Amino acid sequence: VRNIHLLSVGDRVNLGESCFIQAAGGVEIGDNVIVGPGVKIWSQNHEFKNPCQPVQDQGYTFSKVVIGNDVWIAANAFIMPGAQIGDGAIVSAGAVVGGKPIAPYKIIAGNPARVIGSRIIEAQKVVV
Questions:
Q1: Domain enclosing residue 68, as ranges
Q2: Which of 46, 100, 114, 119 is catalytic?
Q3: Catalytic residue at 46?
Q4: Which residues of the chain have pLDDT under 50?
Q5: What burial class does residue 78 get, using C-beta atoms within 10 Å of its C-beta: 0-12 exposed, 13-18 middle, 19+ buried?
């Protein structure tokens, strides 16, 4: 973990082996979250707008990452700056999650990550 003073972790959070969190832009992780092995969470990126200047000389951008409650982020997923993952969501192994908000209880996969399903909440089923 880098910039641990900008990291907020809820109760009952399980971080798998070889996770990396760069919290320079702020990272919030809710309660009851599972973060699989090899997951990378970044809230900082290189600035690259000026093509006449080396990228390494342009500084950084920062964007907070927010991970809701009861989220499962599977092995080797990459969470990019600005990501907002809603409560109950599942991020599949190897997914790359950008700055677009992920709605609660959605299942996402791929690069870039997209919705591939939804968790069904039995109590919310309506009988017609």
A1: 4-124
A2: 46
A3: yes
A4: none
A5: buried
pLDDT in tens, 85-102: 999 999 999 999 998 899
* DSSP percent split of the chain into helix, strand, coil, nearest 5: 5, 35, 55
Does the predicted TM-score (pTM) go above 0.70?
yes
Cα–Cα distance measured from residue 35 to residue 15, given in angstroms and rounded to the nearest whole number: 5
- pLDDT the model gives residue 120: 73
Domain of residue 36, CATH code: 2.160.10.10
Contact 40, 20 (CB under 8 A): yes
pLDDT at 122: 61
Q: Where are the beta strands (DSSP E) in 40-128?
A: 40-42, 44-46, 60-62, 65-67, 72-73, 78-79, 84-85, 90-91, 96-97, 106-109, 114-118
